[in-house]
Amino acid sequence: MKRLLISICITISLILPFAFAESKTELDSTKYYHVKFDLSLVPGLSIGSAFPNDKKISDRYALNLLAGRCDRLEKGAIGGIWNWVREDANGWMIAGALNQSGKAMTGAQFTAGLNLSGGDLSGIGLGGIGNLAAEDINGLNFAGLGNVSGRSINGVQLVGLANVGRKSINGVQGAGFANITGGSMSGIQYAGSFNIARKDCDGIIVDGGGLLNGGSSSGVILSGVFNLSRGSADGMIGAGTANIIGNKADGLIAAGAVNVINGDVDGMIGSGALNFVNGTMSGMQIGTVNFAKSSNGCQMGLINFAGESEGAELGLISYSQKHGARGELFGDEMGNAFTSLRTGNKDWYNRIAVGYAAYGSPNITVFGGGFGKIKRYTGYHTEFGTEFYLLNFENDLQFGTKPNIATLLKFQYSWNLKVSDDFVLFAGPSMNFMFSHYSDGSELMSPAFYKSHSGSYYKRGWIGGILGLRML
User: Fold this and answer.
1) Distance from first CA to last CA of the chain, Å, rounded?
2) Which site among 7, 39, 91, 305 is 20 to 30 Å from 61 CA-CA?
3) Is the pLDDT of residue 434 over 70?
4) pLDDT over threshold 90, residue 8
């Protein structure tokens, strides 16, 4: 049977070649033998191989029972295992294992294995294993493992593992593991783990792990764990854990834990733990701890620090290295004597205070603080602040006992007058609201303008005041 099949192919290769060729007049004007239909068992045992070897073979259509080879493909080829074109392959190619061209491959390529092009691979490519091109990959390409290009990947590429382009990746790319390029990345890219680019990234880039970018990032960048950009960032940048940016940042920068920006920021940055800006902050920082070399915007957090601050600092502890800290002594209508540390800048202040009232019953220990706005006039300035305190009645903080703690919210307005080179006198009214399970506060405070209780929970509001002295 095997001998019979070989004999049939040899006979076909000897008898039919010129029946499937173009006219001799056309042949004389080209360097190819144009074969309308080429039938092959394996390379060398085909209709095309029967032609003289003084010219190359250009197949219009080819049926390669196992494997076949020609110099150029014009329309289409089917191969049981392998379609091999030494130069350009145009049209469609279907093979069990491998479609291969020495130069460009254009049209539609389908194989359970590899589509392999020595030049560009353009059109529609489906490779059960992958699509590989020495130059560009363009069009619509699907692969079980990956698309690998010696230059750029352009179009729509979806793979199970990775898209790899040496110079750039552009368009819409999706990969189960990573999109990787030695150049720039633009368009829409999704990867299950990483997007990696040596140069700039621009577009919508989403991944489950992180973005590693040797250039700048712009657009919408969302990563499950981290974003790392050596250059600047512009747009909406979000990460589950950290954003690390090597230059300036503009837009919205958000991270679950940490933002580190080695440059100026114009926009909003927020994190669950730390925002660090090694430059000028001209927008808003929101986090547990905020740091800026210089701040012209707003810092909002538990702890705020700026080398030089001219903006708003809203938090429990805010410190500007340029403006330093001041000590205060003041009292209120409850008879509490407070010692406080005051920080801030010329337009905003922060206060941390500890107070104690030792007369009468019960004794009270107070701890808290707040922030406020400063407005300056000729010869004096005013302040409006919001402060929050915890009141411990009877000093009941022994181990194993339940402390009798109330909460106090104060809104206060004060006039501040410099009385010497070293001191400022301040005084003004306050509006107070206390919430307690211990007492309704009637034995401590001024007459209430508001009071209510539900069971053992008391709420009370009253008007009070403060009087104090601040050191310069």
Assistant:
1) 108
2) 7
3) yes
4) no
Going by C-alpha positions, the residue among 295, 233, 298 that lies closest to residue 259 is 233
- Distance, in Å, from the CA atom of 173 to the CA atom of 42, rounded to the nearest integer, reads 37
pLDDT of residue 50: 80
CA distance 198 to 185: 9
Q: Using a CB cutoff of 8 Å and minimum separation of 24, what contacts does 454-461 make?
A: 458/434, 459/433, 459/434, 459/435, 460/433, 460/434, 460/436, 461/431, 461/432, 461/433, 461/434
Residue 181 and residue 217: Cα distance in Å, rounded?
A: 14
Mean pLDDT for the chain overall: 86
Amino acid in position 357: A
Beta bridge partners of 365: 356, 392
Find the angle CA(372)-CA(378)-CA(382) to the nearest 5 degrees.
20
DSSP for 392-442, written as a single string: EETT---TTS--EEEEEEEEEEEEEEE-SSSEEEEEEEEEEEEEESS--ST
Q: ∠ CA(423), CA(425), CA(426), 5° rounding?
A: 140
**Would you call the peptide bond into 362 cis, given omega within 30 degrees of 0 as the criterion?**
yes
pLDDT for position 394: 65
Q: Is the pLDDT of residue 152 over 90?
A: yes
Question: Which residue in this structure is represented by tokens 């310069």?
Answer: 472
Amino acid at 120: D
Pairing verdict, β 448-454 and 457-471: antiparallel
Return the beta strands (E) in 358-400 as ranges.
364-377, 380-393
d(CA 351, CA 370): 5
Task: Kindly report whether the global pTM for this prediction surpasses the value 0.85.
Answer: no
Confidence at residue 399, expressed as pLDDT on a 0 to 100 scale: 42
